Amino acid sequence: MEIRIDALARELGAELVGDGAAAVRGVASLDAAGPGDVTFLAEVKRRHQLRSCRAGAILVAERMDRVTIPQLVVGDVNAALIRVLELFTPEADALPSEGIDPTARIAADVHLGEGVSIGAYAVLEKGAEVGDGAIIGAGSHLGREVRVGAGCRLGDHVVVHSRCRLGRRVVVQSHTVIGSVGFGYMLHNGRARLVPHIGNVVIEDDVEIGANCCIDRAKFGSTRIGAGTKIDNLVQIAHNVVIGRGCLIAALVGISGSCRLGDGVIMGGQVGVRDHLTIGDGAKIGGKSFVMRDVAPGQEVVGYPAMEKGHALRTVAVIPKLPEMAARLNKLERRSETDTESSPPA
Hints:
Blueprint: E1 3-4, H1 5-12, E2 15-17, E3 23-24, E4 26-27, E5 37-40, E6 57-60, E7 71-73, H2 77-87, E8 99-100, E9 105-106, E10 111-112, E11 117-118, E12 123-124, E13 129-130, E14 135-136, E15 141-142, E16 147-148, E17 153-154, E18 159-160, E19 165-166, E20 171-172, E21 177-180, E22 185-188, E23 191-194, E24 200-203, E25 208-209, E26 214-216, E27 222-225, E28 230-231, E29 236-237, E30 242-243, E31 248-249, E32 254-255, E33 260-261, E34 266-267, E35 272-273, E36 278-279, E37 284-285, E38 290-291, E39 300-302, E40 307-308, H3 309-318, H4 322-342
Parallel strand pairs: 4-5, 5-6, 6-7, 8-11, 9-12, 10-13, 11-14, 12-15, 13-16, 14-17, 15-18, 16-19, 17-20, 18-21, 19-24, 20-25, 21-26, 24-27, 25-28, 26-29, 27-30, 28-31, 29-32, 30-33, 31-34, 32-35, 33-36, 34-37, 35-38, 37-39
Antiparallel strand pairs: 1-3, 2-7, 22-23, 39-40
């Protein structure tokens, strides 16, 4: 796609500073952009990079003096960048057109809404429902009585097992599995027996789930993901977990069974959470932390095991000094022993 800079300014509702006659064809960072690219300045501390920038146009939050690049002045640089990226999305990455591929296998009683798209070799089992405008990618599988809401987008090879529910505008990327049987075993006569999992998974509206995630069905009741929550790739969510609204969960997080996360919880990459814990609204868990106890609302924790952020940072600061401290302690102990040996008996 190619668009003139002045036309792009109109599309964004931006103030154009400079010549808008040239055209741009893509988006790039400040240091990589060329004359055919739009770039952006989201942080003032990066302004020094403009001296060597060769971009065709730049998104900025306010007019800048002594800048020769055409400026697109917007109220929110990040929001404008999202729109620009949408405009330049390659055709190959665009959403598929509506229609049902002839290789898809769809049970006779499946209900399909208006304008749905069903990819090649997808399977929709008995009683499944797909809402208006939903997209089911190639090779995906919807089990019996699955409900997929309007505007959902399921990538290729997504599996949603029986009786699970997806709300409206849910995005699930490729190879994610929703509703698999959880890791719940009971020792009986010296052997591990799988506990039946007869519940389901409920994904509320506007949730986005990355690739290769696993969200296990509940033993009974529902594993639930709250509206607006965003989940990165390679995340494991165990049976009967309840995640609140608007949470952000980074890659490689593992949440054990029956945990409760409040609204707005943020988890960095590779966080592990022990089973049956409660993490309060707005809590923040630093990357690679292992959570072994409940976290209060608004609390920030980090570390292995996770502890209050300030205490954890002080602990980390001491670690490099431990060899020196140990040597000094040994020296003091030896001096004490020498003093004791040389002292006359009382």
